[in-house]
Amino acid sequence: MxxxxxATAWLLTATALVLLMTPGLAFFYGGMxxxxxxxxxxxxxxxxxxxxxxxxxxxxxxxxxxxxGNSFANKFIGGFDAVGLKGVATQVxxxxxxxxxxxxxxxxxxxxxxxxxxxxxxxxxxxxxxxAKFGAWMTFTxxxxxxxxxxxxxxxxxxxxxxxxxxxxxxxxxxxxxxxxAAGLALAFVLGKRRGWPKERMRPHNLPFVLLGxxxxxxxxxxxxxxxxxxxxxxxxxxFMNTQVATAVAAGAWILVEKFRDGHATxxxxxxxxxxxxxxxxxxxxxxxxxxxxxxxxxxGAVCAYAVGLKYRLGFDDSLDVVGVxxxxxxxxxxxxxxxxxxxxxxxxxxxxxxxxxxxxxxxxVLGPAVIGLYSFAMAWIIGKIIDVTVGxxxxxxxxxxxxxxxxxxxxxxxxxxxxxxxxxxxxxPGTAVPEAKVEADA
Length: 443
Hints:
63% helix; two-stranded antiparallel sheet; Ammonium transporter fold; mainly alpha
């Protein structure tokens, strides 16, 4: 079967764009964290790249995107025929629709899907900033990717049960964002609150980092959404435009909420609103018209702006608002398809309620986030608890006070002595403490 070189080239480009999103996330999260834990926060994203890449090659692709030959078991988990990506190099993936001519090497499709798995795992880390052991986090990434992400990807994008029912998720509203948001909520409960939260105001330490991070995320997201068509056609262009439209509107909606509620619009608000829009349009990008993408962005920006405050009311310390942005935003996007889907194109999918599709698709769009959210939360809580009672998931209180960057990584993002004219200093020795007042002065 002849390979479509244009579609293949675009998908390789989209793969690189999506991979760039994880370093972008590192800057976004790193800027939102406190100065004494920014390196640890960024390391959690880069650590996810390491562990998930290895797992994907060993068995992740096989679990998510092969058929295990058993009609019942295949509803929940793929097979193991492609362990180690055996034989994948010679395979060609056909287009989603019969009329599509985009035939791409399966290895390119696999690389594209790998980048989705990486950032999904990395997203969870924002919920437990400032207090997680790096080794425990790396252990969690292995277990959660294996037991949750790979099977859920099979359910929705492989030949699993949600796919067969006809759930719509163009680029990962449920597989990525609801999945990660629910896991983040579970880990926030397992690890408990940060020392001093919520009485102590734990502001972002570097807002330019936050804006740099969201810029990289926004740029990479065009690969995330438009690449998910796996072709170069009208739907690719639709997903590209909808990504831009929803993101801009959501950023505007968030800062409008801030202006009316708090009296001022903030850089953190515009960054958070942009991410909320990106999250919400992800499941809908190729299924809705641009005017509908504007509605999705408007709703997501406003709803998420209020949702991030739920942690104070409900008493869980979601450090960097993973729940309020990704779980809530992903749910908003998934549900929107039950009303606004205009271009369903896979078997079992229907138009939304506003396009005469009735309640069928709306019911599926409620089912997807509910099932995936509950499964991810339960599994993340169990995995987190097992890690916590065996090797311990949370750093010691003294290490948390001193700062994880120094106590875990023997590094500091900023040389405070040089900044204050104190002269050059050598790198801290592992296990030694920096005076708390000195480290927390800018935290």
